[in-house]
Amino acid sequence: MAKIKSVYSREILDSRGNPTIETTIWTDNNHGSVASIPSGASTGKLEAVELRDGDQQRFNGLGVLKAVANVNQIIAKYIIGQDPTNQNNIDQILLNLDGTENKSKLGANAILSVSQACFELGAACEDKPTFEYTVEKYGLTIPTALHLPTPIFNLINGGKHGAGNLEFQEFHIIPSSQKQFSEALEIGSELYHNLKNILIEKKAIHSVGDEGGFAPNLFSNTDAIELLVETVESSRYKLNQDVFIGLDIAASELLKNGKYKISDVKDNLSGEQFRDFLIDLNRKYSLISIEDPFDQEDWKDWIDLTANIGKQLMIVGDDLLVTNKKRLAEAIEKGACNAILIKPNQIGTISETASVIKLAKKNNFSIIVSHRSGDTDEDFLADFAVGVGADFVKFGAPGRGERIAKYNRLSFIQEYLASKNG
């Protein structure tokens, strides 16, 4: 049995040029793994705490030397000597060391860097790809080349991911789940370049946002949706057959004095009015998903929207659920949504993440494994999504290296599975 012999953490930069934490772990038989942790811009207030230094003399207060020190000086001595394949035991050690519900003592970024590195190290020790190791650990799926997660491409970046003129945070192109991953990736890439050409023709801004999508100078959120419709209609694909449109509203960011403020309408909208606005959008565009349609504590409107159109499309909880089992259980009980965004750094350990996915699957929720807007160039999430049998992955646009790394890994997994089963 291999045992962990060294744990070392350091400060690196993420895709936004901000500090994040990277942890490297080695076993006594010379297997090694590295995990680097992403960071969100639009975050749920109930997410596990990302520990930042707050020292304005370094990186505008965003340094992570405290989190690094927590790994190197506190966590390491309890992890050294452990069996890296015993994930539940390792994660329980991490939870006990922190002792808080939101991981504010050691930092969820410090904790996840160790949890994830140990998980990948376990896969290396068993000489398995991480996705196969995930299947073995949790028994949630049997992946095949024909049934990999469908990519959700964020082609237009608004809100905190864009230039500030679009309130909705993400405008998605989503290929049909009937298509193999390779074809879905081809669709995403072609439409991405189609959209760029259309923006250039319109003499619109075609600069790129945090997640690789374009951040054009449009007047309203509906304009952005219409731009996606035009993008699809100018291609060889059929809208609402080959490809669909989805939205991430990130509505907690829109709420001002109890009302939602958007450029599409003159007056600020109550929850009920905003619900009706979204129902009309769905009626017009046959959306496939709406993520975070209301504030993260606005349970009533979540429940009403799901009751109204939940049978037609995915109502996705991100800020509402924050990959948290208690929040998910409450949403299930209340009928507040029917899909969940899975972000390991919202909860802080791989074991807890898997536990949330199990509960969601048991209650027929759609599973969407997601990156963060401030990400790193590693591809762990691609393996994890395949290994837990996610329905979708949300890795951003098919542009920017930290997004492409994950899509390319899914391509490799598809080929690997096809050759293995062929």
Tally of strands = 13
Q: What is the percentage of strand-forming residues?
A: 15-25%
CATH architecture of the largest domain: Alpha-Beta Barrel
Please write the CATH class name of the largest domain. Answer: Alpha Beta
Rg is 21 Å
Distance between the termini: 33 Å
Biggest sheet details = 8 strands, mixed, barrel
Segments where pLDDT lies below 50 for 5+ residues?
none
Helix percentage range: 40-55%
**Number of helical regions:** 13
Task: Kindly give the count of domains.
Answer: 2
Strand order of the largest sheet: 4-5-6-9-10-11-12-13
Describe the 3D structure.
The protein is α/β, with parallel strands linked by helices. It has two domains: 4-127, Enolase-like, N-terminal domain (Enolase-like, domain 1), CATH 3.30.390; 137-421, Alpha-Beta Barrel (TIM Barrel). It contains 13 helices and 13 strands. The chain has helices spanning 65-79, 87-98, 108-125, 130-138, 181-201, 221-233, 271-285, 299-309, 325-334, 344-347, 350-362, 380-387, 401-421, and strands spanning 4-13, 19-27, 32-36, 150-157, 170-175, 243-248, 255-256, 259-260, 289-291, 314-317, 339-342, 366-370, 392-394. Helix 1 (65-79) crosses helix 2 (87-98). The longest helix is centred in the middle third of the chain and has 21 residues, at 181-201. The chain starts with a strand and ends with a helix.
